[in-house]
Design brief:
The protein is 22% helix and 16% strand. It is α/β, with parallel strands linked by helices and 295 residues long. It folds into two domains: 10-182, Lysozyme-like, CATH 3.40.80; 188-294, PGBD-like superfamily/PGBD (Muramoyl-pentapeptide Carboxypeptidase, domain 1), CATH 1.10.101.10. The strands form three sheets. A six-stranded mixed sheet has the order 1-4-3-5-2-6, covered by helices on one side. The radius of gyration is 21 Å and the shape is elongated.
Length: 295
């Protein structure tokens, strides 16, 4: 059973969907929502926006049911419901500013790229975007330059943009760089490990403190991945020695900190190191390969 909710998004179930899927290859469609605030609870599965250096996400309906973001005219083809799954995601921003500013920041590409990895793993959506093209206003209208034909849409799998879907008039997501998004993988440098310092460490320390305000009693969110942070991660992430926050640890911490989701479905993901020689002793002591470090 694939996960209906993305662990890194805030779950705000609207209780209204586009119904069940009609079958076909798995797919995902990217939209651009031209607003400064949150939007999309009536239409999309999930919406992303950037505040400062942080990308926030909200999911409004489960991925195992259709969204409602696409026009579906009489006759023609199914749009929202086409596929074995059809993940519809929108980004708050302005497509006309792409690719050098606006919505398409480094942080947004990274967040979308990580989601694409998850969507491929959970739902089998290929990390490809074999589309007629992307661009500006020339994509507008039912006969826009970058629309799939009905036959192309039925056969399509992987990622596309609103501008590519038949029966639509919109031209979002502008000059989006598919290659940049889809080349991103869940590598270690997206997360953090013992010895790291900086904003990413502080982000996870603050997530840890949202789970347990006493988890980092001596140093708090000091942006330094020291022993105290390692011990806190080890306590909070089952099976972890706390030495790094990779994809699995991130899913546990992020979801548990914000939304209390059941993450049992992710137990099969095994990116964690071997911890057979690891044991915790006391509050600040750690025994690793026979050596004791006390802080």
């Amino acid at each position: 059973m694939s996960a209906a909710w993305y662990p890194k998004a805030q779950k705000l179930d609207q209780g209204r969907t586009g119904g069940s899927m009609v079958g076909g290859p798995p797919r995902a469609t990217l939209h651009d929502t031209e607003t400064q605030g949150w939007a999309g609870e009536r239409n999309y599965h999930m919406v992303l926006r950037q505040v400062g250096q942080v990308v926030e996400m909200r999911q409004y309906r489960p991925f195992n049911m259709a969204a409602l973001a696409l026009r579906n005219l009489d006759g023609g083809v199914q749009t929202n419901r086409q596929g074995s799954v059809h993940l519809q995601v929108s980004v708050v921003g302005y497509a006309r500013h792409a690719p050098h500013s606006g919505a398409w920041t480094e942080q947004m590409y990274e967040a979308l790229g990580e989601f694409a990895v998850w969507a491929e793993d959970e739902w089998g959506v290929p990390r490809t975007a074999e589309v007629p093209g992307v661009g500006g206003g020339e994509g507008y209208g039912y006969d826009g330059a970058y629309r799939f034909t009905f036959e192309e849409w039925l056969a399509h799998t992987g990622w596309s943009a609103h501008v590519n879907v038949p029966e639509q008039t919109h031209w979002d997501c502008g000059r989006f760089d598919w290659a940049k998004m889809l080349s991103i993988t869940e590598s270690d440098d997206m997360f953090t490990k013992r010895g790291d310092k900086g904003d990413k460490v502080e982000y996870w320390q603050r997530r840890i403190l949202r789970i347990d305000a006493s988890a980092l009693p001596r140093f708090g969110a000091d942006a330094d991945y020291g022993l105290e942070t390692q011990l806190a991660v080890a306590r909070l992430v089952p099976g972890s020695d706390g030495s790094r926050i990779g994809p699995l640890a991130a899913e546990h911490l992020d979801a548990k900190a914000s939304y209390g989701q059941d993450l049992s479905g992710y137990a099969k993901k095994t990116d964690l190191p071997d911890v057979s020689n690891f044991a915790l002793k006391g509050t600040y002591g750690i025994v690793l390969d026979g050596a004791v470090e006390v802080r």
